[in-house]
Amino acid sequence: MNRTQSQQIFARAKELIPGGVNSPARAFGAVGGEPIVFDRATGPYLFDVDGNRYLDYIGSWGPMILGHQHPAVLAAVREAIERAFSFGAPTPGENQLAELIVEAVPSIEMVRLVSSGTEATMSALRLARGFTGRDRIVKFAGNYHGHVDSLLVAAGSSAATLGVPNSPGVTAGTAQDTIVCRYNDPTDLERTFAAEGSQIAAVIFEPVVGNMGCVVPTPEFLAALRNLTRQHGALLICDEVMTGFRVAYGGAQSLLGIEPDLTTLGKIIGGGMPVGAYGGRREIMQHILPAGKVFQAGTLSGNPVATAAGIATLRELRDRPPYARLEELSARLELGLVQSAREAGIACTTTRVGSMLTLFFSATRPTDWTTASQSDTSRYARYFWAMLDRGIYLPCSQYEALFVSAAHTPELIDETIAAAKESFAKLS
Ligand SMILES: *Cc1c(COP(=O)(O)O)cnc(C)c1O
């Protein structure tokens, strides 16, 4: 594939923008080489600036569940843009999007719209602290909740539970209020609550992890999360920025029977536009300014063009649910990948919930960050490039889930499996 234009544009980007990108996940750091510069997209396809076509398994990291340029979403955005770009004042669309969210997610009675997933988790943490009057937060190693200071924290090296900064610029003071536990480990959580339960404001978690590759929670872990937080008066924050409207219309919580106090959303609820949200029980949400005293604001929050994209996306998902078809397509892809890898003698395992899927180059199925990080990432990098050269655009890291969209077809899945067969043959 000729990528001359991409290379030229990216060379200039590196002079203008740190690392040439506006978000590090897209920099190809984990697979080597340079990212591709895109021009347009339609349905399941992406087109780069050199005119090459790729079958998209990222969907802008999750939002594009309907595929690109879905006619209903495109029409809604066009209509909105003709009326206004922004008011910074109430609009009917905000009610419509809030109503769709409240109706879809049983644990959400009230919702506040923001402009990104990061803003949603940051605000939910502040609300949890304001509501409980406590400072400490529990998170899990390998879960990602956006670039919030208090969540850019790694487990300390000693057996002590206090976190250490995971990025320069995050203060030790901030990190000290974050406790990092092991995902899928009820005992670790029990120990933490036994020691510091009275100081913990909230536990935040990914209900199906997408950010260490797809990792599935055990029922025991989910039960411990709810029981321990309830017992100790801490809030349970279910971060559904990725899973909301993805693994089921009502999110992972409807699929897995989780009853969180607060939920964070993003990605799909903006249909490709910058929208995030956090919501939960009315009694808690009423603490947000101006109903209550916990400060949170945003000039472009509830932006009419962004909400129009979100409303059209959620209506489409509600009225013509693609979830059964997504399950079929994704199961077909999973089976095809596993069989092809085995035939080529390549050790691998898959994890999948609905249209979220990861092929790990590892013999054992990951359950937490320790097991996930044992995957052969250099093999993933070679697989990634072999697939890209065959026009298949996969996540540029072993530790990101791929997404199947409603615009994919059985034929496209079979083409992908055929490309994977060729790619695996080059790996062994
Ligand atoms: C993507 C993501 C975020 C951050 O959302 P941004 O819109 O990138 O700020 C937070 N939590 C989870 C689970 C995510 O997948």
The end-to-end distance, rounded to whole angstroms, is 23 Å
Largest sheet: 7 strands, mixed
Oligomer: single chain
* Low-pLDDT windows of residues: none
Mean pLDDT equals: 96
Number of strands: 16
The set of bound ligands, ions and cofactors reads:
pyridoxal-5'-phosphate
The helical percent reads 25-40%
Class computed from helices, strands and strand pairing: alpha/beta
- Under the CATH scheme, the architecture of the largest domain is 3-Layer(aba) Sandwich
Quick synopsis:
With 428 residues, the chain is of the alpha/beta class. It is built from 14 helices and 16 strands.
Description:
The chain has 14 helices and 16 strands. 39% of the residues lie in helices and 16% in strands. The longest helix is centred in the last third of the chain and has 21 residues, at 323-343. The chain folds into two domains: 4-65 and 322-427, Aspartate Aminotransferase, domain 1 (Alpha-Beta Complex); 71-319, Aspartate Aminotransferase, domain 2, CATH 3.40.640.10. It has helices at residues 4-16, 71-83, 92-104, 117-132, 172-176, 186-196, 219-231, 251-256, 282-285, 304-319, 323-343, 369-372, 377-389, 410-427, and strands at residues 38-42, 45-48, 53-56, 110-114, 136-140, 153-155, 163-165, 178-181, 200-205, 235-239, 262-265, 276-280, 349-353, 356-360, 392-393, 402-403. It has a seven-stranded mixed beta sheet with strand order 4-12-11-10-9-5-8, sandwiched between helices. It has 428 residues and is α/β, with parallel strands linked by helices. The site of pyridoxal-5'-phosphate has 15 residues, from helix 4.
